[in-house]
Every structure is written in C-alpha cells, then in structure tokens.
Amino acid sequence: MKVLLLMALLTASGCDGSPVAGLTGQNVTLPCKYDIKTNRAVHVCWGRGELPSSKCNNQLLSTDGYKVIQESGVSSRYQLLGRLDEGDVSLTILDLREEDAGRYGCRAEIPGLFNDEKHHIDLTVERAPDPTTSPPSATQTFSERPAAAQTTADQLTTESLLTSCSDSNITAERQQEGSMLTVVLVLVVFLLVVLFTAAGLFIMARRWRQLKLSPQLQVQFTSTSSTLELHSRGSAVENIYQMDGGAEGGEYEFCP
Fold first, then answer.
1. Cα(105)–Cα(51) distance, rounded to whole angstroms?
2. Which of 28, 144, 156, 220 could disulfide-link 22, Cβ–Cβ 3.0 to 4.6 Å?
3. What is the pLDDT of residues 14-64, one digit of tens each?
C-alpha cells in the first residue's frame, strides 16, 4: 500500500523532486552527490525553494569541494556531514522542526555550458509519536513482525524508485540544456548568414553604380574630344587669308 502511494506521488510530481520524510526532533539527510573523479572538486550550494538559472535561492550553506562555508544568519542545524572528498554533499538537518518542511535545491557547478547538476528534494515533516503513550503489548508486537519485514521491503523499493527518478530527472535536464545550446548555435549561424548577405548586397550595389557611371564618362570624353577638334580646325582656317593676284588668278600665302 505504501509503495502504491509513493508511486502515485512520483507520478503526480513528474519526478520533479525526490520526496524525503522525517520526524520532528530527529535528524534527516537530503541526498546529493556528484562525480568528483570526473569533474574534480566543484562548488556546491544548498538553498530553499526552486533552483534559479544560477546559484541557489535562500542559500543555506555551500562548499568549494574541500571545506564547508556557513552562511551568516543561517541556523547551524544545517550541516554537510558526508564525505566531501568522495562527492557526497548531502544536507543533514539536525533537530528537525515542522517549519523545515518544503522544497530544497542542491546545485553542483560543473565546468562548461549548461553542465550544472541540479537536484530538488521535497521534505515532509511529521510529528514524532508522543513518548508518554503506553508501549504495545507482546501480542501486538508478535503480530506486527511481518509488517516490519514488509516495511523494510517497502523502504528498499522506495530507494530504488527514488534513484530511478533522480536519474530520469538528470537526463531530462541534460536534454533541455542540449536543446538550449542548439538554439544558441542556430541563432549564431543565422546572424552570420545575415551579415554575409548584407556584405554581398553592399558590394553588388557598389559595382552596379560603377558600371552605371562608366557610359556617362565615355560619352562626356567623346564630346570633349569632338569640341577640341572643331576648335582646332576653326583656328587653322582663320590663319589662311587670300592675297589679290594678276589676271589669271590670285596667290595665297599661309601665315603661320
């Protein structure tokens, strides 16, 4: 029954956040790990609420991969008690309280574009049973032993479901980041095409203007040459004059 309820919760949330439950007054650990062998030590932060595009909202604490960095004004009940040198940056909340319930986010800042690993944990806090209540009788304990075994099996099934949910969540985020990178590359290629097209049009317009002005210059040069030739001929005629001669005709003299 508990497994069916957990599967219903995971289906409703779309594996957006891994559910973790705890009791008031006890400690609870919110899991978060990254591959330190591949990525080396990286900066990791924990915050409350949804993770933004970078860093963490309402940051509780962080680590540079070697030491824990406590935020000023934040309760010391938040601790990183895992092996940082193995990439275990799970958040432990001491002395759990009802107001601690809600969504938590863990971000591992992996170098590279859109490579950050993000994990969301939905924490549910229940009140611990009253210690003043009478303990169950021996008969009740004997009859509830099979239920305890069933609870252990439910916990194992729950852990496997959470692991698969976390893996599918990481895969979906990687696919989303890959699609964003594709969009950026398409925009860059489009801008380059527009730039080269504009440059080509500018060169063609300039060549067209040069070809259009060439016939006008040729006509103007021909007209100028004709005018100079006519002017030269007129000057030569003016230098020739006729001298009066005898009865058979006249003699001409050319004056340079």
1. 6
2. 28
3. 346 799 999 999 999 999 999 999 999 999 999 999 999 889 989 999 999
- Beta-bridge partners for 118: 107
How does pLDDT run across 206-226, given as a tens digit for each residue?
888 888 776 665 656 565 555
HEC profile of the chain: CHHHHHHHHHHHHCCCCEEEEEECCCCEEECCECCHHHHCCCCEEEEECCCCCCCCCCEEEEECCCCEEECCCCCCCEECCCCHHHCECCEEECCCCHHHCEEEEEEECCCCCCCCEEEEEEEEEECCCCCCCCCCCHHHHHHCHHHHHHHHHHHHHHHHHHHHHHHHHHHHHHHHHHHHHHHHHHHHHHHHHHHHHHHHHHHHHHHHHHHHHHHHHHHHHHHHHHHHHHHHHHHHHHCEEEECCCCCCCEEEECC
- Contact between 125 and 23 (Cβ < 8 Å): yes
Distance CA 200, CA 229 (A): 44
CA dihedral 126, 129, 130, 135 (to 10 degrees): 180
Nearest to 113 by CA among 34, 159, 176: 176
pTM value? 0.50
